[in-house]
Amino acid sequence: MEYKNLIVEIKDGIALVKLNRPKALNALNSEMLEEIKHAGDALNANKDVRVVIITGEGDKAFIAGADILEMKDLTAIGGMKFSLKGFEAIGTLENMEKPVIAAVNGFALGGGFEVAIACDIIYASDKAKVGFPETTLGIHPGFGGTQRTAKLVGLAKAKELIFTGKTITAQEAYKMGLINKVVPHDQLMGEVMALAEKIKANGPFAVRLAKECINKSLSLDNKEGLIFEAKNFGLCFATKDQKEGMTAFVEKRKPTYKGE
Ligand code: DAK
Fold first, then answer.
1. Which of 19, 51, 107, 167 shows the smallest number of beta carbons within 10 Å?
2. 79 lines ligand 1 (CB under 6 A)
3. How many CB atoms lie within 10 A of CB 138?
4. What is the pLDDT of residues 160-198, one digit of tens each?
5. Does the pTM exceed 0.90?
């Protein structure tokens, strides 16, 4: 599929997805949400892709939120359709079988920050600013922001951020536990690529199953979670990757994983 709002580049097992509406600070419109879902599904099915990176085109923004021009005159039905598109796009990223890294290169606001926190790992430029300005517009986060933020930083901090609608620096977000790492702006993509390479070198099946276990920890109680983990752990032993990883250790060489 030809994308109008995304650039997708795949090289050596790493997919780079650039959100490409820089004139509107990569604001999420319906079309972009549909394209994110389509690209996510395609990358998921692509056996050559081991890690996905998502970032914003241009120097200023990751995503400055949902497209306010498109939302301004939405009817209730239109709002519901928009919501479902967001739900599908963001759900696709969150549930991808491969790790998804958000490289937050500038503003990540509202729906844009909701995209970032649905990714597995967030590295941000020291120039980035994040937050949930929705309440300043008379709405509240609607792409999972209330739920995921509360789980990431606790109820009180999530409420302060969302009730005030304030924008915070990447460093403040890092201190709150919303972001994994803050790096100098011009080093962001280098650091993210190095992270992707490190993950790519490990057993793809093991990483996939671990992601599934970690995501399940949000909805299962401790005992159910441990049982789920035990089942996935057992599944690792049905893979060629596990045999290769342990054989390589015994033979004192680096493993070559195929994700099988
Ligand atoms: N939507 C549409 N256009 C946007 C935009 C946005 N969110 N953000 C920026 N732009 C556009 C600006 O209108 C401007 O376009 P032109 O005037 O040049 O045509 C261009 O991008 C450059 O922006 P600025 O000139 O404003 O640039 P500045 O550097 O001065 O300011 C800024 C940057 C990021 C501080 C500012 O642009 C800003 O405050 N933008 C809005 C940020 C915001 O409020 N974001 C949250 C949007 S609400 C839902 C689920 C989720 C959501 C909605 C519904 N359902 C379940 C139904 C999510 C809602 C949101 O994300």
1. 167
2. yes
3. 6
4. 999 999 999 999 999 999 999 999 999 999 999 999 999
5. yes
